[in-house]
Amino acid sequence: MPFSINIGGVGVFGGRSGSAPAPFDAINGPRLAGPQGSHPLHAVRADELVRATDGPITGAITLDQPARVGDGITGTIHLSGTEQVVARGAALRLIGLRLDEVARSVDHTDSDGHVTSSEHWVEVQGKLFVEDAFLEPAVPATLDPGQQWEARFAVPAPPLGPPTAHLGESIIAWALEVHWDVPHGHDHFVATHLQLAQHPDLLRAGVGKQGGPSLMQGVPIGDAMISVTSPLPAPAGAEMAIGVRWPSAPGGPKGRVELHRRTNAPNGTEGIIASAPIDPATLAGGAEVRLLVPDGSAPSFDGAGLEIDYVIRVLVDRRFRTDAAIERPVGIV
To answer: What domains can be seen in the chain, in order of their start residue?
Structure first.
C-alpha cells in the first residue's frame, strides 16, 4: 500500500520552496512553502516581498502621500549609478502581484509503476497581473559611475484596484519600479513597495461584486433590519456598532451576532472572525451589539481573480431544530 508523507519547506523535508517574480522576490525560497495543511503566507507581509534594487544602481522612490485606488500617485525618484549602466530603455512602472498558496503533491513509483509513496505540501506562487510603464518622467537609459539623477513623477493608481490586501492565504501587492531593459543581460531595477488603499467610493458605487448595500446604514431582510450605526466602510481594528430589529425572530436559548469573511482564495479559509452574544428575546423590539473588526483584515474587494467580502449574520439557536439566521453585507477597509 502506498503511504503519504508531508513535505515541509526546509531541507530536512526535501527543500520545497515558493517564488514570486521580480521585484517581489526578496524572500523567495523555503519561507514560501510548508507542510500539507500549513499556511506559509500567514507570516508574510506584503512589504517584505519587494527587493529594493537589482544591478549597479542605488536609489529610492518616495511618495508625497499614501496611495489610494483611483487617485493620482506623486513623488520623487532619486537614482545613483555605482557602475556604468547601458540599457535599451528605462521607465517608471507600476507592478501588481497576485500571490497564492497552492497545494502540491507528487507520487513516487517503483520499477513496476506502482505508487510507493506520496508527498504533499503547500507552496506559494506569484504572477504579475499589471505591468504599466509610463513615458514620464523620462528615465535615463544610461548612467555613469557616480552619476546622480532626480525627478518628480505623477502617475495614476489603478482606477478599480484591487487594493493591497492580505487575505491570509493570498496576497495582492503593488510596487513602483524604475526598470532598465538591458540587452543581452540581466535587467536592473530600483523598486519600492506601494501600499494601495481601497477607495470607499468604489464600495459606495457598488463597483464589482461588493454591492451598494455593504455601505448602507440599514439593510432590510424580510421584516427584519440589520443596521450599522458606526461609520462605513468599517476600518480594520475598529469596533462596529450594530443594531438588529427582527420582529419575527424565533425563540431560542441563545443568539449571536457574527462577522463572517468569505473569499475565493485557492487555499483560503472562510468563517467567523468576530462574534458577540445577543438575547433572542430582545430582537423583536431591537437590540444593539458591538463587534471588533480584527486588525489586519483585508479590505472588501474583487479584482485580479480574487475577492473577499464580509457579512453580518444574526443567528438564533433553536432546540432540536436548525438555527434561524439573517444576514447583510458590510464593507471593510
So the answer is: 3-197 (no CATH), 201-330 (2.60.40.640)
